[in-house]
Amino acid sequence: MTQEYMLAFDVGGTTIKYALITPELEFKESGHVPTEKNKDNKILKTLLAISQEFQAKYSLKAIGVSTAGIVATDGSIRYAGPTIPNYQGTPIKEKLAQTTNLPVFVVNDVDAALLGEALNGAAKNATNAYCVALGTGIGGAFLNNGQLFAGAHGTGNSIGYTLFDPCTQTNFEQRASTLSLEHELSPLEISVKDAFSEAKAGQEPYVSKLNAWALEVAKGLSNILLLFDPEVLIIGGAVCQQGEFLLQLLNNQLADLLPPNLCQTKIKTAILADKAQLYGAIYPFSK
């Protein structure tokens, strides 16, 4: 019997990653190509070309695409920010399905990261899980009884825009993203990674800086825990590489923000790194 593979893509602002994934969730082939700022519909053309190339060599079961932007129910790009020009309206699912005659799943990249962790990572076997991606901004994704929750208009979990403070005119992501932490550390001429190293050694002012940032993150997490009560809350983004030290910072702050012994959610850091979105893209076809 011929083995059927799944082809996964992860479309970002600068790079399109791809991987051929086995039914056992192992990577057989992988690579990446530049988006070239989506000049002349470069992204869609690349997805189609790579899909046809792999279809000619392997028996494909399905294609999954994780992508930046808001994905419409028909698998097109409903909204895309300025990081990917001329991307909005791109009919990814329609064109891939027409060209390959295969089932196609298109999903937002934060949703895909959560699905990947649920499939083969930190949220494996959880039916209710929330993911908070800390990066340039802050994104959210909610897996509820095995199904993604996106809201009535597809804009649910836009947690980066919550917690607006009229005094500072800032929202959650403007105070708690890793980009905001970078800005806070810039006068000290130190990277986020190195600041964590100094804080682990008990060095000031890095301990105080990271505690202040962790408090801002925890304010958003506390609302998620109280509103959604997931089995597990996953912290994603490059900062998740700080592992147990990051979790300790957040849990220390959450202890002062939440009613004692009320929330039972387990908070974890993501473990799949840059493979999470690729796994998440093929989530519906891996069962």
The structural domain count equals: 2
Helix content: 25-40%
Largest sheet: 5 strands, mixed
Beta-strand proportion:
15-25%
Low-pLDDT regions: none
SS field, number of helical segments: 9
CATH top level of the largest domain?
A: Alpha Beta
- Measured on Cα atoms, how large is the radius of gyration? 20 Å
Ends apart, CA distance between termini: 19 Å
The CATH topology of the largest domain is given as Nucleotidyltransferase, domain 5
Biggest β-sheet: strands ordered side by side in the sheet: 3-2-1-4-7
The residue-averaged pLDDT reads 94
Structural class call reads alpha/beta
Helix-strand string: EEEHEEEHEHEEEHHHHEHEH
Tell me the CATH architecture of the largest domain: 2-Layer Sandwich
Shape: globular
Q: State the total count of DSSP E strands.
A: 12
CATH H-tier superfamily of the largest domain:
ATPase, nucleotide binding domain
GO molecular function: kinase activity
Family: Belongs to the ROK (NagC/XylR) family.
Keywords: Kinase, Transferase
Protein name: Sugar kinase and transcription regulator
